[in-house]
UniProtKB/TrEMBL annotation:
Annotated gene: ppk
Name of this chain's protein: Polyphosphate kinase
Polar residues composition-biased segments: 1-13
Residues of the Polyphosphate kinase N-terminal domain: 46-151
Organism name: Endozoicomonas montiporae
Active site: 479 (phosphohistidine intermediate)
Signal peptide segment: none
Cofactor(s) listed in the protein's UniProt record: Mg(2+)
Length: 731
């Protein structure tokens, strides 16, 4: 990505910054060693959170141009970009606008206030959205046409297609669509968040003598945004689609009989979708249900409108939504691209247009089972099992729970659920366990963003089955991924645990990279028991032995280990830090990494998305390298590696390096103590660091440069390598 395709960040400061500590002039070391920077509070040493977030989305958009990806996967990346940008405006931009509106402006680590950030966001995002539609119109749609996948314009329809579309309009669209003429008796409707709408310019009087000149048409969500035409009315052997917007445009005059339609233009409004729950509520579930009703109608934050819409109509819409030109996005195509995902998922697509399928590997240690009914717990009792999803199957985790549900010796099951689904296999197993008389306690995080309604349904289903359901701790989201199974074995009680970096969602386990640990280690399982007791009961924080857990010991534990590496480096001992996370924004953690870098610790950060740390600044972070991996799978695992003077420590965690994770959530960070398993994770981290195909390196000025092999280097694609190593995948 070149410098014209990134948001403006402050330039990286030099080592001659006035806050630097300069050694005596007589010191020979002063010539060779850059002066050490001591003022770590200087905003110039930090990157803006929101602009870094936008840059991650741009790296996703770049995948739409990568010809190594199958064509429909390139389209999918473009649509993922749309979905990501939608959420960015619904949450992040909405939050900044709210700060200004409420007069509670907060300055970030980089010193930028919300007004300045919003200006940068809108400038950069408009450039990228324009580029997104250029990629769609000039690259992807022509390429799809060559593959016999056609998106037909109104002018390209043959007679049979026009007849079919007319019938479709009268039978499927017209009966449920509600045009709204704007006059004193029909005020402008309150439109739902991200709903496809049309503003219509009219001329003439209707049957009642009204002549307001405008109407609005909301398109019900029940209507498909992309309609597949029957093969027998098409002139080619390919797949033919037409957009719902084209169908409505073609028959717009049928909705306003006797009127002259001067123009019809798509638009879409994005609203604030963050939920605002007070900490002191009597019933969290009831309060959340009330908030969900209002989510679709939050404050307006962005207006998208087709680029040929006349300025007077645009001005009318902006005024109606209390927005300015800053929040206006003109687009050259459909305003709701994410609904094109159905095209990517069409089962009739040729296989070469999508990623080659693979079967996740079932762990070798469990392949020795005589049959599928052999209890996974018996194998976990022999040795810890480490799984790397999606390369290795998530099925053992589901099997462990299912078997526990039926095992007469299992007494109790406890589990946290963040994003799972009310009718998933995990939910089915918990329901079965409760109905078999097990003591089932589930901590359901009903505030998991955009999954709140699903989680409420899940909680209700579990309660109806007899499970005890709690909603965690008010003021703290429960983001930890834990399962505890209590089993009677002879005269003793044995505990088994699953700890993971990702959610208990089988679908995500095919798309996200995550680690799972199955263990019966007495200290770890006892720690898990204590954390569950803390979540469901009340009292002082329990002292745990091996786990780090937020908001109590996790941040301090990580910073202490970073500081220990700095101490070792100063003493000439082996010192290294490798951290793989999704985001890094927490101030104290960044400062600890800066100090470790100054001490000479080699630090490699694999940060998928947001990174507020500036690498490569002399005297501060010249020993820190930051890279981002964007590929077929969403990098989601969180791993913390510390050299520890040759006795390395490896931790996996549910937590990223963000303030919300370390200070305001219930999180766990668990050690991988079995040397073979820890060494395996270290080797896989090194694979990520060697990637020169799907990786991007963060520069000190805040830009990202894609890594590419030179003529002497082999191509190294970490996700491809792990697929080939851990599964039956054949390129």
């Amino acid at each position: 990505m070149d410098n014209t395709q990134r948001p403006t960040q402050q330039p990286a400061p030099s080592a001659s910054d006035p806050v630097a500590e300069t050694p005596p002039a007589s010191s020979k070391e002063a010539v060779k060693t850059p002066p050490k920077i001591t003022d770590l509070s200087n905003p110039e040493y930090y990157l803006n959170r929101e602009l870094s977030h936008l840059q991650f989305n741009t790296r996703v958009l770049e995948q739409a141009l990568n010809e190594e990806h199958p064509l429909l996967e390139r389209l999918r990346f473009l649509l993922i970009y749309s979905s990501n940008i939608d959420e960015f405006f619904e949450i992040r931009v909405a939050g900044l606008m709210q700060q200004i509106g409420y007069g509670r402006e907060l300055v970030g680590l980089d010193g930028m206030g919300p007004g300045a950030v919003l200006k940068e966001i809108n400038s950069y995002a408009k450039e990228q959205v324009t580029r997104q539609y250029e990629i769609l119109n000039e690259t992807l749609l022509p390429a799809l046409k060559k593959e016999n996948i056609h998106f037909l314009k109104r002018s390209e329809l043959n007679e049979k297609q026009r007849i079919w579309i007319k019938r479709f309009f009268y039978h499927e669209v017209m009966p449920i669509i509600s045009p709204i003429g704007l006059d004193p008796a029909h005020p402008f409707p309150r439109l739902a968040n991200k709903l496809l709408c049309f503003i219509v310019s009219l001329e003439g009087k209707d049957a009642f003598g009204r002549d307001t000149g405008m109407a609005v048409i909301p398109a019900p969500r029940s209507l498909p945004r992309v309609v597949k035409l029957p093969d027998d009315i098409c002139d080619n052997d390919g797949t033919n689609y037409v957009f719902l917007s084209s169908i409505i445009h073609r028959h717009i005059e049928d909705l306003f009989p006797g009127m002259n339609v001067k123009g019809c233009y798509q638009f879409r409004l994005t609203r604030n979708s963050d939920l605002d729950l007070e900490d002191e509520v009597e019933d969290l579930a009831k309060a959340l249900q009330g908030e969900l009703l209002s989510r679709r109608y939050g404050e307006a934050v962005r207006l998208e409108v087709v680029d040929n819409c006349p300025q007077p109509l645009v001005d009318f819409l902006l005024k109606e939504f209390s927005l300015t030109e800053e929040e206006l996005y003109r687009v050259n195509g459909p305003v709701n691209l994410t609904r094109m995902t159905s095209v990517c998922n069409n089962s009739s697509n040729d296989e070469h247009l999508t990623f080659r399928s693979f079967t996740p590997e079932y762990p070798k240690v469990l392949q020795t089972r005589q049959n599928s009914t052999d209890n996974v717990l018996d194998y976990v009792k022999k040795a810890d099992i480490l799984l790397h999803h999606p390369y290795e199957s998530f099925t053992p985790v589901i099997d462990m729970l299912r078997q526990a549900a039926k095992d007469p010796n299992v007494l109790a099951i406890r589990q946290t659920l963040y994003r799972t689904g009310a009718h998933s296999e995990m939910a089915d197993a918990l329901v079965e366990a409760a109905r078999h008389g097990k003591e089932v306690t589930v901590v359901v995080e009903i505030r998991a963003r955009f999954d709140e309604e699903e989680n409420l349904a899940l909680a209700l289903r579990l309660q109806e089955a007899g499970a005890v359901v709690v909603y965690g701790v008010v003021g703290y989201k429960t983001h930890a991924k834990m399962m505890l199974i209590v089993r009677r074995e002879g005269r003793s009680i044995q505990r088994y645990a699953h700890l993971g970096t990702g959610n208990y969602h089988a679908g995500n386990a095919r798309l996200y990279t995550d680690y799972s640990l199955l263990t019966c280690d007495k200290d770890i399982t006892n720690d898990v028991r204590k954390i569950f007791q803390q979540l469901t009961g009340m009292g002082k924080a329990f002292k745990v032995k091996k786990l780090l857990h937020a908001p109590f010991t996790l941040k301090k534990g990580l910073i202490d280990r970073i500081n220990n590496e700095a101490t070792n480096a100063k003493e000439g001992k082996p010192a290294r830090v490798i951290i793989k996370i999704n985001a890094l924004t927490e101030k104290q953690m960044i400062r600890a990494l800066y100090k470790a870098s100054q001490a000479g610790v080699k630090i490699d950060l694999i940060v998928r998305g947001i990174c507020c740390l500036r690498p490569g600044i002399e005297g501060l972070s010249e020993n820190i390298k930051v890279r981002s991996i964007v590929g077929r799978f969403l990098e989601h695992s969180r791993v913390y590696y510390f050299e520890n003077d040759g006795e390395s420590q490896v931790y996996c965690s549910s937590a990223d390096g963000m303030s919300r994770n370390l200070n305001n959530r219930i999180e766990t960070c668990f050690p991988i103590e079995e040397p073979k398993l820890a060494n395996r994770i270290k080797k896989e981290l090194e694979l990520f660091l060697s990637d020169n195909v799907r990786s991007w390196t963060l520069q000190s000025d805040g830009s990202y440069v894609q890594n590419k092999p030179n003529r002497r280097q082999r191509r190294r694609n970490v996700q491809r390598k792990l697929l080939e190593t851990l599964t039956n995948y054949v390129p």
